[in-house]
Structures are given as structure tokens and as C-alpha cells.
Amino acid sequence: MAIRVFLISLLFLSTTITTFSLYEDQVGLMDWHQQYIGKVKDAVFHTQKTGRKRVVVSTEENVIASLDLRHGEIFWRHVLGSNDAIDRIDIALGKYVITLSSEGSILRAWNLPDGQMVWESFLKGPNHSKSLLLVPTSLKVDKDNVIIVFGKGGLHAVSSIHGEILWQKDFAAESFEVQHVIQPLGSDIIYVVGFVGSSQFNVYQMNAKNGELLKHESAALSGGFSGEVSLVSSNTLVMLDSTGSTLITVNFHNGEINFQKTDISDLIKESLGMATILPSKLAGMFALKTTTFMIFIRVTDEGKLEVVDKINHVTAVSDALSFSEGQQAFALVEHYNNDIYLTVKLGQEWNSDLLKESIKLDDQRGLVHKVFINNYIRTDRSHGFRALIVMEDHSLLLLQQGEIVWCREDGLASVIDATTSELPVEKEGVSVAKVEENLFEWLKGHILKIKGTLMLASPEEVVNIQAMRLKSSEKSKMTRDHNGFRKLLIVLTKSGKVFALHTGDGRIVWSLLLNSLRKSETCENPTGLNLYQWRVPHHHAMDENPSVLVVGRCRSNSDAPGVLSFVDTYTGKELGSSSLVHSVVQVILLPFTDSNEQRLHLLIDAKQRAHLYPKNPEAVGIFQREFSNIYWYSVEADDGIIKGHVLKDNCIGEVSDEYCFETKEIWSIVFPLESEKIITTVTRKLNEVVHTQAKVIADQDVMYKYISKNLLFVVTVAPKATGGIGSATPEESWLVAYLIDSVTGRILHRMTHHGSHGPVHAVFSENWVVYHYFNLRAHRYEMSVIEIFDQSRADNKDVWKLVLGKHNLTSPISSYSRLEVITKSQSYFFTHSVKAIAVTSTAKGITSKQLLIGTVGDQVLALDKRFLDPRRSINPTQAEKEEGMIPLTDSLPIIPQSYVTHSLKVEGLRGIVTVPAKLESTALVFVYGVDLFFTRLAPSRTYDSLTEDFSYALLLMTIVALVVAIFVTWILSEKKELRDKWR
Amino acid sequence: MMKNSASKERLLSHQRSSDPAYIRSSPTPTTTTRRKFSDSDSDSKIQFSLEHAFGDSDFVPAGTFSARLKTWSHGGQTLTKLRFSRNAFTQAEKGNFEKLLIGDEFYRIRLPSNVLSPPGRDYVVSSVKARCLPREGLDEHFVIHMEGVNILAVNYGAPGACPYPRQMKLPAKWSFNSHTVLKNSEQAPRTPVFAEEQLGENGEGEAVKPPERSFWAKYWMYLIPLGLIVMNAITQAMNMPEEQATGQAGAQQGAAVQRGPSPAVRRR
Fold first, then answer.
1. Cα–Cα dist B229/A632, whole Å
2. What ipTM was estimated for this complex?
3. Is A75 found in the same domain as A179?
4. Is residue A443 part of a domain?
5. What is the membrane topology here (chain A) (predicted)?
6. What pLDDT shows up at residue B255?
7. B-contacting residues in A 609-668 (Cβ below 8 Å)
8. Which of A411, A693, A835, A919 could form a disulfide with A394 if both were Cys (CB 3.0 to 4.6 A apart)?
9. Which residues of B fall within a CB distance of 8 Å from A670?
């Protein structure tokens, strides 16, 4: 008996342990994870016959990855740090991938099959220079293959087996800028060619085995050079002179340097405009690119130039590939409308095409930016070619035999901004027929599920159940759901492409390469900045589509003209776009909509003028009504000044129209530059909902939260402490946190953390701010919380006052009233450094909050806000314990189960976006970096809905069984009664 | 040595944070008394001017702040004993101010951002809707945020509330009633560092656990069925003797019992 009681109590106890984490079979049920690599910079094919076919690529997101050539899947991948850009890659010894990164200072070797790092060596040198990597196939020193690296102003020979530097030679002292390192095939001599200044041409001849300088010649080049220097053969270079109109051929041979000048106009009779030499390495020739066409020019043995061909519409040329003895081929890609033509030409004979294919492409991919080719031997022993092409939208495609073998949407590795859009409302209700049709299926599924829960299922059935759960069509439907879990994630990427991802399974619903964000003559270097919800229809939700506003600018500096584009989120079509005459520095969302439900936006330009959008008279009318109540602030981080502004009147001058307004400054805060520098500013999210304004604390007392949308959190640090950690001593580094009212410029709170250091990551929600920084004295990271409470409403506690209406809770609050606020603050140690912080947001703001911390390990940790409560004390009273207060500890706990990303990593994590679902308990979380991750979170668990795997069939069957049992027992009892009566 | 200086610094900053001198200048500017300070060598008197503007007009001097500049032994300088004397409005200024009141516009003030070499890098500006100021006279409240000899910001406004639909109201007296507060930065509380043994006992172990809830909150779902079972058992136990009693009685009374309540009991 005692044992039974013990067992039962044990069972009870085991079920009461709270679960933060997922079960193994819940992975992938409501989360998805996508891996990307970014725009490919360089690709090297793995040519060895053995093993699986792969290509190794390096990307602009500093990723090195090995991809499967059959399906485009990632075999392995490494994301190097954001300041460790990969310059060159190559394959050595047929088994190591060699990468040169950080401007030629770090050389690493990775094992080709599994991507493990084999060795790493640091190349030291005095100055910056172009970095070059040369992996000769035949150069051997004592049975060791040598890698020749030019980096940091010196030439290094590195052993490919263990990465040791065999010899090195510095060129730094002579201010020598290297252009090429050449190793003629089969010889032990290396030529290092380059320039001193822009006119002196130098050739160094060196012994590759020991680094001995054999010969050094130099010759003056009149007229200088500009742009790329193309290596035509192992002893001939071609470049343009500084005017860009003359081609210079340099021939160096046995200590002689010959220059030959040829005017471009002599070669081609028409005017070219600005021409540039392409960096591609073609055997015996080079390519000259102008704005309209491309010219291929062959260099003959005597150094003469001959025009081989002139082709329009060429966009990309690959390097030459030697595929059989002495034969070299290269690929060029031409565009015609939506088709691309891939031509593989033999280097020696121009007129014979080895391959000519036309491929139809999706028109949302833009132009071909890069092409890499690789050969294979067909079954009939002829040579086939496959081409890897990189498109304008950063996607990567493999072409083979005139078809797209696979395609990777690697633009998604560089998400700039993300927002959400609702899906269309389901127009006709769910038809009964449809349900009945698969009623049998439905029942079967549920019976399987029951088997699963009762642990009766066989292993295959378990697999079936799992597959069924993952593929549930319910979650990837294209209509709005009752719980608000299904949405469209609209993301803007660096390439100027906008994607819509379905939150259910992460698939791309549509994608759009914005024409306004593509390179053009008027807009040389467009970049996307932000996405805003332009129109969210509520009244016309059935027949109007929501749209988003994409804001970009033409150059990276802030006074460049802006670009706007409006995109329909259901169809993915661009509704309109405009290139603006003014710049865009700040975009302010106004809380008003016009009759078309377009949100009013105020765009501030570099001259502090405000421009109202949408440009229609109705919007101006709405705007004029609230004219005097619109305030905003600007942060000039470099000058250490924060200013507040209001609107004045319509613009006067060249851009004057009724949608443009002059502004004036009403307040300013000037930080002394010698002691403070602004590093972080954070505000509350505009759409955040706060449910309770008051906080009931333990002793039945009430504190009113100071909830203002106009609070600005600013962190400044000592100027010395702006560098990395270690750049300042604890005495000379400090960090000051400010809470500023952005309407009046009042500083509500100001606090100095001595001995603390940036970088600072902060999040602001309701009436609290949490920020993360480094404490130099304690040698640890810290997180602090500030909560701000309103004292002016504190005397509203009297019930009688509330009953009699003598309270000031309903009166409008003015920022100009004198503030009576108190702040509470507390600091805790935290183990990790942080990449991003966000907070969960729910529909009504009732559910308790969790902080989402993007850790240095590229994972997301969910931390209950209760751990960051400034009222925590070491020994909480009984009342405080009942309230749920956690006893104070010096550091914040990291519970392994509370990682939102469970076992996955979001490589290169940059941002966390949280969106409320319609269900109050649940928030949707989207994490982006090189990878994308999406999940649903329920900080207080799903108290308002049944779990997904709740078995309705079991419930139904139980009810049916109970009803049957009731009837059976009733009949039995009736019978018994009758029998009893007859007795 | 290091420790010593650190502790001194803490002491100083503590002093500084408790320092905010709350000075109420006398209601009328003309009666502001000025005392001469000559007690300390390291202290020097300093003056800087307040300037104001009506709406978009240019800034003109409107008053003078005077304070003592205290030089600390570690080299820092702070202001203490701030006094303020405000110039009375001229007739033209009164007119301007009335215009602001009518238009519900901004009355702006500014201070130099450095008190030693005004205006420093730039002026710090603050403004308030003119309608917030008039009461009996014109009530104003300055909060000057200092960092050494630099003025970071000045917060200017009414000392009390300024309810939103701002009422147009002319002041009875055209004289300023000024309140001035000087504020320096607060020191953040240090992160508590617990001793190792304390950590071992209750620190870490407890922190990892989820927050404790009361017994009832945790186990109600088990307690309620348990209670029901117990209640059921009790009622059954209560029925048992009754049934026995009825059983005995039934043997005697026979058919009369069958329409009585006992079959119901038996059926249950």
C-alpha cells in the first residue's frame, strides 16, 4: 500500500515539473529554420573524381560553404566573423580548401569532405595591400606543396600541409602595390608585378623554393594607369592609362620590359564612352566593357592587339578553365529579354562555341552578375560544361544541359528589415462537402494519433504520425486563421528584392525585385532602408489588399535622394514607385489613416524638412488638424546632440508644395564630446499594447507605470571606451543611461555606470528598459533594468475617490506638466555577450513578457522578465513570494531548455522581430541573420487554447463511449427495476 | 593606492549625487540678494546668462545665473549654490508673450552648454507652451543637468501640471517666480556579488528553478479530484449504516419499502 501511494505521488510530482522546452517530436511543428550562404563572391569546383561532386563557395556574408552539385544543399558551412571578410579561396592538395581572409592576414585550411579546420596561420605585415592567393599545382619544396600568398604588403610562402610560413619577403618599404603574382607553368620562378605610385612598373623575379630575389627590374610608365590590370599570359599585362582612352600592353621577358600603347579608337571606330577592363582571366585575351557592349581583344605573340568580337548584352564572363591538355574555355552570359544565353567558348578559336544554351529565367532575378564554369565528361567521352551563375538578387543557380538544375535563394541571407502582413480572409466559409470528403482520412489520422498517445503505434506508424503533423495543410494555408498564426513575413533584402514568406512553413509565396532599387543611371548605388506597413485594411478587408512601403536611398550617405516603392502584399506586384527629389533621413509613422486606410507617413530629409505621404489633399486635411501636436527628435550621434522639433509652416523655395513643411527646433541636449559619446538610442515599439497601467505590489499597494510613447532611451559612453573591450581602463570608461521625453526634451532619469563599456544592446517596452553592457571592473557582462513609475497618479489609490470620480486617471496627460516619476533600477551579471535583444509582444499585452536574447552563439534565449525586476531582493517577504518575486541573485540564470532555437543556430544573427498573434498567449518570433528562423512562443504557456496535438477524436470517442455507457446502464437498471418489481 | 583612490572617488560621487542643490530664488528678481563668498580659495564665482525667445524670434538675454565653481582635489569641477536673477519683462516683451499666449506657441529659453567658456559647443535649448506658465504670476521651473562644467540639458516648464486643452489665461502679475534645480548624474547601484558559499546554498540552485508557487496553485488539479473522492467515500460511508438499517427494516416492512427512497440509494 505504501509503495502504491509512493508511486502515485511520484507520478504526480513528475507531471508538475514545468516544461519550458520542446519535446523531440515537436521540433518543426511550429518552427522552421532555413540555411543560406549569401551572395557568392567566388567559387571553386572540386574536381577530384572520388567522393561526391561539390563546389566550394565564399560569399559576401563571410561564409565559406561546400555545396552539393546535384541538389544545391549545404554539406558544410562556416560563418566567419563580420570583420573577417574572405578575399580568396582555392583548393590545395585536392583535399584542403584554402581561404585568405581579413585583408590577406589570415590563411586557413579546411578539410574538404567535412569542413573541419586543418590549420590556420596569421600573416603579419606592416601595411594594407591587395591580397592575392596562388596555389601552384606543381611547386614543391621538400615534398611539400607551397601556397604563395601576397598579403599585408609582403609575399609569403606557406606550407599546405601544416600551414607553416616557409619564407617571406616584405615589399612594404618600397610602397609597392602588387597587381599580380605569376608562376609560369612548371617553373620554380615567381614573378611579382606591380606599381610604385601610378607610374613606375616593377617586376620582381623570385625563387619559389627559398624566396631568394633573383632579379628586379623597373621601368617608368608615362601617363600612369587606372582600373584593373589584366593578366593576358604569363608575361603580358594589359591595362588602361589614366585617361581611360589608351590601352597599354606590358611585356616583360628575361629582364626586359616593353610598353606598347594602343589607342582604343584605333581598334574600334566608334566612341565608347567610359570603358573598363574586366578582371576575368581569359587565355590570350581580355575583355573591355562599356556601358552598352563588351569587346574581346586578343593579344598576339608580338604584342599586337586584335579585336576578336564585339557582343551586346553581355553581362558576365567567367575565368578561363583548362579542361583538357592545352585547351582553355570560358563562359559568357548574354541577356535577351527574359532569356539568358550561356555560351562556352574555346579560348584559342573564337568562332567555335563549345556550348550554346538558352535558359528561361524567372523575371524576378535580374541580371547575371557572375558566372563560374566547370567541366565534366559525358558518357560519350565528350566534354560537358556546367555553369554556376550568381544573379542580381543574390540567388545562385546551377545550369547544366540548358536547364536549371537547382536554385538557391541566397538573397535571404541578407535581410535588412522585416514586417508582417495578414493573409486574405477566407471568402466562402469552409464547405461541409470538403470536410466530409476527407472525413475518413481525418478519422484515420486521429485514430493514428490516439494510437500514438496510447503508445500502441508501431514504429512505422509513429513515423507516419510525425510526417502528418509536420505536413499539416492547416498551417500552410493561404488564408487567415482564427488564431492569427498564419501571416506573411515581408522581408527586404540587401539586393533590393522583397520576399513574402509564409509563417507556416517558411516557403516563399512571392518575390519581387524592385526596379526602383536596381542600379540605374540616376541612382548609382541604391540601398533599401526600411519596410513600413503602408496600408492595413480593416473596413475593406475583404476586397482591398494590404500594401507595404519600401524606403530606400540612392547612395549610402544620408543626403542622397530617396526612393519609395509600394508593394501589394497579396499579389507581390509593385503598385507604384517614386524617386524623390529630397533625401530620407527619418520616417515617422503617424497614427492616422486616410479614407483609403493608407497610413500617413512623415519623411524627414537632410535639411530637416518634413514631407507628408500619401500626397493627397485628404491626408493634408487630417494632418493639419494634428499639426501642432506632432513632435519628433533627431539624434546626431557624431556631434553628440539630440534635438527636438515641431512643424512650422509650408516650405518655401525650390521644392515647395503643400506636402512639404518647414520645421523648427524646440529643444536640444548637448553632450560634452570630451566625456560622452552617443552609442545607442532605443524607443518603444509603436504598436505595443499595454494592458494594465498599474502594478499591484506585495503589500496591496499600487504603483502606476509611467507609460509614454515618447520616451527615448539613450546610452553614452566615454569616448575612449568606444573601441573594443580592452581599449580603456576601468577608470577612464563609463556609461551613462538616459531616459528622455522626446516631446519636451526633459531628462527623466540619468545614471552613470562607472567602469562599464559598450557595446550596448537595449530593449524598451511598457515602462521598462533592459540594457546589456560590459563591466570592466567585474570582468563580466551585465544587464540592467530601469523601471519608471508615475508618482503624480499615485494618490489614486483611494477607492472612494475612484467611486466618486475624483481621480485624474481619465484626464489627458500633457508632456508639459511637471513630471513626478520615480525610477527603480537593478543590475545583474549575464554570461553571454549579446547580438540583439527583443521582447515578446502579444495582442492585448496581458501575457507576461519574455526577453529574447540573441546570444553570441547565434541562438535565441528566452528569459522571463521577472528575472529583471528591480524589486527583487535577497530575502523576499512572504507576500512578495506569493506575488511571484524571485529572490535576488547576482547573475541571470541561463536555463538550457529555454533556448527558443533549441538545437539550431541562426548563423550570423542580426535581428529578432516579434509579432503578436491573435491568440493572446502567443507571440510569433522571426529571427534573421545568414539563416532564418521562425517560431511561436507562449511566455505563459498556451492558457487560452488546447495544444496542437490535443486529440479531438479521443475526446469525441470518450464522450460517445460515456453516452453509450449511460444508455446501457440506464437500460440495465430499468430492466433490473422491472425484475425487482415482478419479484 | 588604487583601492584608496577608488574609494575616494566613490565617496565624491556619493557626495555629488546627494548634492542637487534645490534653490528657490526669491519671487521677484529685484530682491534677489547676493552674498559675497570669500571663504575658499579653490572656489570661484561664475556667471552665465539665460536667453529667451518668443516663438521664432531671436534670443535675447533674460536673466543671469550665478554660482560657485568648486574645484575638487581630483581635478573635477562642479557648480554649487546656484542663484538666479531674472530680468523683468519689458513692455514689448509683454506684448510678445501675450501673442504667444493667444497663439498657444512656444516660449523658448537657452543656456550655454559650457559655463566656463560660453556658449561652449552649442546652446542647450528648451521650450514650453507659453500657456503653461501663467498662474498668479509666471511660474517657471528650471532643471539644469550638469556634467562638470558642461550643461547637458535644461528642462524648462511649469512647476505644476499643465492640463491638455490649454486654457488661455493672462497672468495677474507680470513677474517671474523661478525655481531652479541643479542635477548631476546618479551613480548606478553596484551589481550585488554574493559570496561563493551563499551561491552554493540558495543562490544558483534556487535561481535555476522556476519561481515558487503556492501549494494550492500548484496542486489544485490533483487536490480537487482527491477532495471529491474523499467526499464520495465519506458519503458512501455515511450511507453504509443507513443501508444496513434499511436492510433490516426492509425485511420487516417488505413491499412498503419498495416505493420508498432506498431503491434510489441502492441503484447508485
1. 65
2. 0.78
3. yes
4. yes
5. Single-pass type I membrane protein
6. 41
7. 628, 641, 646, 648, 664-668
8. A411
9. 113, 120-124, 150-153
**Which one, of A577, A778, A12, A318, lies nearest residue B191 by Cα?**
A778
Query: Which ranges of A491-642 does DSSP label H, i.e. alpha helix?
Result: 617-625
Residues 36-55 of B with CB under 8 A from A: none
> What contacts 24+ positions apart, CB below 8 Å, involve A817-820?
A817/A792, A817/B132, A817/B157, A817/B158, A817/B160, A817/B161, A817/B162, A817/B163, A818/B141, A818/B157, A818/B158, A818/B159, A818/B160, A818/B161, A818/B162, A819/A741, A819/A746, A819/A748, A819/A792, A820/A790, A820/A791, A820/A792
Given a cut of 50, whether residue A655 has pLDDT beyond it is yes
* B82 in reach of chain A (CB within 8 A): no
Q: B124 vs A668: CB contact, 8 Å cut-off?
A: yes
Residues B108 and B168 both lie in one domain: yes
Q: Is A906 helix (H, G, I), strand (E, B) or coil?
A: coil
B197 touches chain A (CB under 8 A): no
Q: Which of A41-55, A102-116, A568-582, A768-782 has the lowest mean pLDDT?
A: A41-55
* B119 belongs to a structural domain: yes
Classify residue A693: in a domain, yes or no.
no
Judge whether A329 and A354 are in contact, CB under 8 Å. Answer: yes
Quick one: average pLDDT of A77-102? 88
Q: Is residue B132 part of a domain?
A: yes
**Nearest CB to A827; choose among B56, B191, B218:** B191
Mean pLDDT of chain A: 84
CB < 8 Å from B in window 757-786 of A: 775, 778, 782, 784
Instruction: Report how far residue A53's alpha carbon sits from residue A45's, in angstroms, rounded to the nearest whole number.
Output: 8
Are A577 and A613 part of one and the same domain?
Answer: no
B247 touches chain A (CB under 8 A): no
Look at residues A75, A104, A111 and name the one whose alpha carbon lies nearest to residue A87: A104
- Check which CATH number belongs to the domain holding A114 and give it: 2.130.10.10
Q: Which residues of A touch B148 (CB under 8 A)?
A: 672, 675
Report how many domains make up chain B. 2
Q: A133-137, A146-150, A514-518 — which is least confidently predicted?
A: A133-137
Of A582, A602, A624, the residue that ends a domain is: A582
Tell me, yes or no, whether B195 lies in a domain. no
Which chain A residues have a beta carbon less than 8 Å from that of B160?
817-818
Q: Check CB contact of A932 with chain B, cutoff 8 Å.
A: no
**Which pLDDT belongs to residue B11?**
36
- What domain count does chain A have? 5
**What pLDDT, on the 0 to 100 scale, is given for residue A38?**
92
Give the tens place of pLDDT for each residue, A376-425. 887 787 888 889 999 988 999 999 888 899 999 999 999 999 999 988 88
Task: Please tell me if residue A14 touches chain B, with a CB cutoff of 8 Å.
Answer: no
Domain carrying residue B243 = 215-253
Q: Measure A705 CA to nearest chain B CA, in Å.
A: 18
For residue B11, being part of any structural domain is answered with yes
Looking at residue A533, its pLDDT comes to: 92
Amino acid, res. A393: D
- What are the tens digits of pLDDT across the range A898-934? 899 988 999 999 999 999 998 898 999 999 999 999 9
Residue B267 has a pLDDT of 45
Nearest Cβ partner for A817 among B162, B185, B203: B162
Do B31 and B161 lie in one domain? The reply is yes
The domain in which residue A452 lies consists of 427-475
